[in-house]
Amino acid sequence: MEIFDLRITVDSISGRSVCGLKPGDYFEVTNSAELRIPNNKHFCMYAIASVLPLLPAKQRKMAADDWLEQDSLVACPDPEEKMIMKIERIRSVNLKASDLT
Question: Do 72 and 59 contact (CB within 8 A), yes or no?
């Protein structure tokens, strides 16, 4: 089956950055379920939690008119930060369903 590796990047922060992230910071989801954060970096677990439910869908191709196929921006739940993250497909990966749980 074909799925996509994803990069979730801080697109903008128009409020007060409470968690210390800045635009350009990112994490990746690879090989279906591996979360990768660059060395010596961090990512707020609450920001990750807000984007997490959307990731399995974004890993797969959807109908062109599906709203999730067209939309890739997610807001962090902290109202003071006003942080927006962008989900991007960075590469296609072929995996066998039998290798996954």
Answer: no
